[in-house]
C-alpha cells in the first residue's frame, strides 16, 4: 500500500522496476488492485512469498507499507447427503475433490447438523 495515495499503475510500475520478478526468480501468480493505489501480490509458494516480502521490505519500504495477508481456509456447507458416510470418508472425499483449495495437511473441522 503506498504511503501517499496514487494510481495502482504507479505502484505496479514501482514494483516491477525495483523487484523484477523474472531476474529475482519469483513466480507471481496473481496481482490484484486494492484501494488507494495498493496491490496484492500472490506468489506460487510460501518460499517465494518470503523472498518477495524481503525484497519489498528492502527496496520499497520507504514509500510503501508492506504486509502479509493471512490465507484463510475455505469453508464448505454440504447439504442433502443421502448416504450414511463416516466423518473420515466425508473429509477425504472433500479433500480429494478440492485439492487445489485445501492444503493436504490442513485441519478441516467438520460440524454435523441433523435435520
TrEMBL record:
Lineage: Eukaryota, Metazoa, Ecdysozoa, Arthropoda, Hexapoda
Species whose genome carries this gene: Psylliodes chrysocephalus
Domain of life of the native organism: Eukaryota
Protein name: Uncharacterized protein
Amino acid at each position: 500500500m503506498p504511503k501517499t495515495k496514487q494510481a495502482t499503475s504507479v505502484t505496479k510500475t514501482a514494483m516491477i522496476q525495483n523487484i523484477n520478478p523474472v531476474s529475482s526468480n519469483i513466480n507471481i501468480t496473481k496481482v490484484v488492485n486494492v484501494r488507494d493505489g495498493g496491490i496484492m501480490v500472490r506468489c506460487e509458494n510460501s518460499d517465494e512469498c518470503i523472498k518477495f516480502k524481503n525484497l519489498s521490505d528492502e527496496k520499497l519500504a520507504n514509500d510503501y507499507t508492506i504486509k502479509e495477508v493471512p490465507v484463510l481456509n475455505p469453508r464448505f456447507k454440504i447439504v442433502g447427503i443421502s448416504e450414511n458416510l463416516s466423518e473420515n470418508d466425508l473429509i477425504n472425499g472433500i479433500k480429494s475433490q478440492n485439492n487445489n483449495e485445501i492444503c493436504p495437511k490442513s485441519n478441516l473441522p467438520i460440524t454435523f447438523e441433523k435435520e
